[in-house]
Amino acid sequence: MGKPTVHDIAREAGVSLATVDRVLNDRAGVREKTVARVRDAVSRLGYVRDLSAANLARQRRYRFVFLLPDTTSQFLHALHDAVLEATAALQLDRCDIEVMHVSVGDPVALMAAFDRIEAAGIDGVAVMASETPVLRDRIGRLKTQDVAVVALITDQPNSERDHFVGIDNVAAGRTAAVLTGRFAGGREGKIGIVVNSMMARDMVERRIGFDRVMGEGFPNLTVLPTMEGRDDHAMTERVVGQFLDSNSDVIGIYCAGAGMRGLTKALEDRGLGDKLIVVAHDLTQHSRAALESGVIDVVINQNAGHIARSAARVLKAQCDGVDVIASQEKIRIEIVLRENLP
Amino acid sequence: MGKPTVHDIAREAGVSLATVDRVLNDRAGVREKTVARVRDAVSRLGYVRDLSAANLARQRRYRFVFLLPDTTSQFLHALHDAVLEATAALQLDRCDIEVMHVSVGDPVALMAAFDRIEAAGIDGVAVMASETPVLRDRIGRLKTQDVAVVALITDQPNSERDHFVGIDNVAAGRTAAVLTGRFAGGREGKIGIVVNSMMARDMVERRIGFDRVMGEGFPNLTVLPTMEGRDDHAMTERVVGQFLDSNSDVIGIYCAGAGMRGLTKALEDRGLGDKLIVVAHDLTQHSRAALESGVIDVVINQNAGHIARSAARVLKAQCDGVDVIASQEKIRIEIVLRENLP
DNA sequence: GCGGATATGATTGACGTACCTCATTTTGCC
DNA sequence: GGCAAAATGAGGTACGTCAATCATATCCGC
């Protein structure tokens, strides 16, 4: 005998199909005692609702929104592409995904986006934005409307988001540090760090992890104060250039944030292309090229494709009230060398 | 208007539902001209068959077999667990997965397993076994029966398998080499290599990749002849022990195969636990512990969970005649340090 | 034990596809 | 032009679930 159906439940519980349906779909008008009888039959027979039949019957489509910053960076671009790819693939699974680019630093614009999401009756939202009280509250409000919410890249730890899709940035910083330290092989020297801005939580966390490992494991290396590139190539090039010109014994640079083109430019202009140990974040067109040419030694990557698919899967699972495979949804800190470039 | 249905196709093509059905399901008895008319309408309207409705109607279940070696190793154990986990998750997607453990070195037993698979009317097979002409032919025969076939871990490059789920072992060897070399930081010394057996293609490939990078990039390091551990802890411990005792200036070991427990035992017994650079393959309970304690420095991993899920997804896509997301099915060469342990 | 509210039953028609039967039309061939 | 074979049409039932209607049964307070 195959999987039990609603008919089997009805028979087993001694009620009619209509009542089973009312119970399964949480409709009113059933006595508690009867509800219990049905629930009992469900667990006794091990009934699981056939989701595809259910979705077919109710003509269901899942509507998700990916809320991304409107700033541009190669990583964001890659993420956007990855979401589009996932969108195409999930079309067959009744999912409609829309990408909204919003000035996430602007609370008014951000809230307006959420208003539109709420008004449109969206089933789930993946939001990438830095943590603010306003956003936290807004996520709470979405949850009261039964909208699934996942935090993307940057966690919203004190909010009611259902899930975080991204990496542990402290661990990423530690990973960058240990690679830098071991590649240095005992030599003494200085290490520079470039970030977008120390206002961003991810950057701070990476720096914390980096410093901790450096302090514990590599006393031969001196980590210098953070340079801020403000997401801008020219700016990054300038600060890194000044840094290189005024420090003679630099042996490595950790680029925890964007602006990588400025960094490589500064290095190449000084003929340091393959002299320094350079660890950077996120595999993009540019960092891939720099890895291949040897300007960058290691890329610490959070896989954009994996992130996009994972977010979509988690949102769908949340809507369906189904468990996810934890290990599949764990975003790994990928270490990419020229030799294991995908 | 929503997605087009078979009714729309029938109307658009000016034929009846029955004919559309015959065309879509490749049934006989339709003139070529009519087939073309229907196909035309399909592409004109952008019709895609609703797979869940179709599967519902035909009460379809996908039956897959994972054919794994009956030898035991921690990696195989992890893979087995991963397949079971995937099985549970895919239960909801109408997939029944069975794991068969077979003595893959024994052609008779292997062929018997294939016979059973063929007789049982299985929809797809994921096979992990070394490449032989017998196996190649058998895969070809399966393909004539419309059974989906993927090669697992070890490719069957000249067979008609639909897909290979695993890593590029030459690249893995290169990756191991560059990490060993850079961790050595210019020091001179000897590097030992441990494998199961040089009969296995994966081992040979890893060794090739390792040697090439070492030869090109690290003239300060001397790679010594391969030690064969034959998948056995005691054996591995003995050969590694002898190696360590008779070579004074060993600074690193690359463990390309199984038997890791023997390796770590040999190292620890000589107080070399954290003295040597040790690069090993595959994240298991044991290698995780060794990584945490510092005996092993790097694990090159092929993610068992990813492999199991990917194989199942590819088999299903093959049965459905659907494309896979290439980037999702690319098994990455993971570099695992203590700092980025998942 | 009556009346009104509340629970439950019985039934039906979707959803999009598969697959079957039987009738009818068209085709190819001599 | 006639005939068999092939192609097509028309229609129905099924898959498991949802959602609705309407009739009937059971409950509760008085």
UniProtKB/TrEMBL annotation, chains A, B:
Pfam families: LacI, Peripla_BP_4. CDD domains: HTH_LacI, PBP1_sugar_binding. InterPro entries: HTH_LacI (IPR000843), Lambda_DNA-bd_dom_sf (IPR010982), Peripla_BP_I (IPR028082), SBP_2_dom (IPR025997). Keywords: DNA-binding, Transcription, Transcription regulation. Residues 4-58 form the HTH lacI-type domain. It comes from the Bacteria. PANTHER family: LACI-RELATED TRANSCRIPTIONAL REPRESSOR (PTHR30146), TRANSCRIPTIONAL REGULATORY PROTEIN (PTHR30146:SF152). This is LacI family transcriptional regulator.
